[in-house]
Write a structure and sequence with these properties.
Elements lengths: L2 H17 L1 H15 L8 E9 L11 H10 L6 E8 L2 E6 L2 E6 L4 E9 L1 H10 L4 H22 L11 H20 L2
Antiparallel strand pairs: 1-5, 2-3, 3-4, 4-5
């Protein structure tokens, strides 16, 4: 590769890398979160706890005042939203950021709150392509990643480039996904 082409390659690699650094961080963070979706909720912190009411619950006469009283009984100081009975035995009371589900006969139930994870919720939202403009920008980013990979191959020359070290590392980097494909996909 000639001097001018090498200089253009370096400048392209540098400038595309600078331009897309935020996108690389966004997709890396959301990728980590999505990889562990079975281990934890990447967008929300979910808190659950058992509750027991001593107040009788009559499906026919239950009202908003009683629903708000349940929130007070369980020391839930969030704003009341609504309630409904999903079936004959269960009452569901919603409040801002969570809900309570109670068995109307035993009074046993579970409360849960949801709180957005500040950074992960935002980057996951972006990762799921919120609109057509973001989709196009993400597609351009994907092409830019290919360009970054290809220009990165030619940054160094000699034994640290593709003549030796670069080829070994690139080969290992190709083999690892191929092994996973052979073991778990095909």
């Amino acid at each position: 590769m000639g001097k001018k082409l090498r200089k253009l390659n370096r400048a392209t690699h540098r400038d595309v890398g600078y331009f897309f650094v935020a996108m690389i961080i966004v997709y890396s963070l959301s990728g980590i979160a999505i990889n562990h979706i079975d281990d934890w909720d990447p967008s929300y912190v979910v808190n659950k706890w058992e509750v027991q009411t001593s107040s009788p619950i009559n499906k026919n006469t239950f009202n908003t005042v009683q629903a708000k009283a349940l929130l007070e009984e369980f020391d839930i100081d969030y704003r009341y939203r609504k309630f409904y009975f999903p079936n004959e035995d269960r009452l569901k009371v919603f409040f801002k950021g969570g809900s309570i589900s109670l068995n109307i006969h035993s009074g046993n139930g579970r409360a849960e709150t949801l709180k957005r994870r500040t950074i992960f919720h935002a980057v996951n939202w972006l990762h799921y392509n919120p609109n057509v403009y973001w989709k196009w920008f993400s597609d351009i980013f994907a092409v830019a990643l290919i360009l970054l990979s290809l220009t990165g191959l030619f940054i160094l020359k000699g034994k640290n480039g593709l003549k030796w070290r670069g080829t070994i590392l690139m080969t290992i980097g190709i083999i690892i996904p191929l092994i996973f494909l052979m073991l778990f996909y095909f």
